[in-house]
Each structure stands twice: as C-alpha cells, then as structure tokens.
Amino acid sequence: MESDTKLNQQNPFLDGTHDPSLISWLDSANGHPFFSIHNLPFGVFKDSDGIRRCGVAIGDYVINLHKLWADRPFTGKAGEGLEALNDTSLNRFMSLGREVSKAFRQSLSKALTSGSKWESSIRKTLMPMSEVSLCLPCHIDDYTDFYTSIHHATSVGKLFRPDNPLLPNYQWLPIGYHGRASSIHPSGTQVYRPVGQCLNPTTQTPELTATAKLDYEVELGIFVGRPTPAFEAVAIEQAEQHFFGVCMLNDWSARDIQAWEYQPLGPFLSKNFMSSISPWVVTAEALAPFRLPPTRYANRPKVPSLESYENSVFGGFDIQMTCHLRTAQMRKNGIPAKKLSQTSFKHAFWTINQMLSHHTQTGCNLNSGDLLGSGTQSGPNAAEAGSLLEITRGGQDSIALPGNEFRGFLEDGDEIELSGFCESENGLRIGLGSVVGRIAPAFSSPHLSKQAGE
Fold it and tell me: What stretches of 262-399 show up as alpha helix (H) in DSSP?
C-alpha cells in the first residue's frame, strides 16, 4: 500500500492545469464548489436564437465556444479542438481523442489564468449560467449499463437469493446490459411514472398498472471519446485513449415491473422509460488528481485480459456521489432536501478502463458519445446505499422524512437530486454538477383503459 501511495504521487496524468495555486481573473471561478479553473467541463446550451452551441462551465458563467472560435485564439492541436467545438454537439470534439482534448484544456486554462493576454477575448464570450438552457451534451447513439458495485450487487442479491447473493460470474467479468439511448434526458426533465406489467401477489396473475415501486439509482455516466475500431478488441492498456469524461446518471427503475420481467434476459421496460444525466461532462484530464489504485477485494480472481500495471495504480477515481430527496410537502413548507446517501466511485469493483475494454472483447465497436452507466454505486456501509431498493430492503422498511412523511419508494411530486464532486488532500476541488428529476403521475394509457373496462 505504501508503494502505491508513492506511485500515485508520481501521477503521470498531472500537468500545469492541476496546480492548486492557479488563480483566474474571473472571480467566481476561484473557490467555486463545482466549476473552478481546475475543472473546465464541457456542455451544450441553446443561445438566444435557439441554436445549440458548445460551451465550457467556469464559475457562474458559460463560455460560448462559437464566439471564442470567431477570434481564433488557439493554434495547433488546441486550435483543431476549438474548430471541432464550433458545432451543435460535442461528438466531433470527442472523436479527436485525448491528445486534442488535453491541448485544448491547457490552452483554455492559460487563457483563464490571471494575467492572461486572452482575458478580453474570453470575457466577450461569457454568458451567465442562470440564463442558459442546457441540453444533452452530445448525440448518444448507444447506452450500456454495467453493474460495477459489488456492495450493491450483494445487497440486492441477498433480497432475492439469501443463500447465494453474488452469482459466480460477477468477479470474472463486468456484467452489463444494452440500455435504451432514446430515453436519456438532461437534468430537469420530468419523470413520468411508468406503466407496466406487474405480478399481483394476491392472485398470482400479472396486471398492467402504474408502478408502485419507483426507484432511483446513483450512477456515474461515462462517455466514449475516440471511437474504437470495428471487429477489434481494445486492450486494457489502450482503453484509456477512448475515455472522454463523466457525468452523474440517474437510471430510474420500476422495481415491481423489474421483478416480473427480468428472468431470463434481464431488465427491459423497468429501465427503458427514463435515464437522466447531468449536463456537464467532466473530462478525464480534469479527474487526474483524483486517481487512485482500485479498491482491492479479498480473494478476487485475476483476469489477465483485464489487468494492467497502469490500471492497478491509477484505474480508480475518488468521485463522491450524493443523493437528496425533497417531497412536494417539504417544498411547500420550505424544508430543505434530506440527504439519503453518500458514497464514492472508488468502491467500484470494475474500473472505467475495464468496462471499456471488456465491452469491445467480441469486436463490438464504440462510437464517440456512447454512454456507459456504472450501475448503482453503493459503498460498504448502510449510509452509502445508492438506491431505495437497498435502503428500504425492497420496501420492507421505510425512510422517515421531515414533516412526518415516510417513504418505501418514490411518490408523485418527489424530487431526487444526485450530485458529484472530487476533493483532494491539498484542497483541490471540482464538481460534476447535479442531475434533478421530479416524479409526475403516469400518462393515461389505452391499455389501462381497456383493462379497467372503460
């Protein structure tokens, strides 16, 4: 462990953009809890004409990269990156790879540092964060959801298989399933209670009904950068080159629909109705100071195809992930949201590079902008559980809330906020921002109407 600490101090991913002493000429960027000069996350917003533009969050502002491109402040790889960012999504920039994204980050960091000759050029592009409408950051063609938290997998397994909670393949490969990219939405999009087939425990016959067990899942979203070649497996040593950045992800789940449908092929309608993501993508470069060795779990088998020296030393990330709940009654009475949990991605059993490499094992190619979900992230303690399924033991227990309210699962009007941040020992802090979703009643369904005899 001591040698790992020493190696981590020699982190090859660090450069001048991570210097804790950096000060920006933009006052709100200094000490900002999410968007300091050390972060510089990418996103997409609508300008006053309704046109989508790429931007970078800095302090309380957004840099309009279309306006910055007009001044052509950067050359070389950084200039190539800025030209790609003069677009309506991040996909083209993502596809250029880490060499370009790193060069652009270094140039922008210098331009934002106190005393920069580019201060006037940047100032002309600034838009107050409160005045922009944020969109999905890129076009997402494909979405794969993994299951990387061994603590979550074990807790859920105990609910359904008390004698055999963790299936034997879990420690040999990253488990995942193909999700539905069309129903990924940005933070703030309303979550309509889904309707699906559930097993009636009284009659033991399935019924079409609105879910009574709506849940959230605290997840990390991982974006693919440079595409991978078709029909070729990406070695674990090369996976890093295809990792662009991360966001917060809430994979909403209907647990009663899931319980009826998931055998033998896994989740389907219980997951495909909605997944929400935070609008800002924190890049792999920004996460460099928060790398660490992956958590070592006892008796874990070695999988040669998913092992590398770099992954064993720098493959983990200490990304703190929190969940807050606020009911309609709490909002009405001015009561702040209740914190339900906080955990860290450092507890994940499988790393980002292992997920990326394993996904291509059969020759499946990944495209720029593809999204991977980490699966629900839970830690070793009860306070780190990443879903109500775990916290309430499948609804057997309930959470006490202010105002004498209780919850087993989510009710209409409830609002969930997931947020993420990283903080180092020397005080360096960046944030992923947050993803918010409020539950609305189910849409009327013609199938429900027929069943009700209308």
Answer: 269-272, 309-314, 328-332, 352-359, 388-391
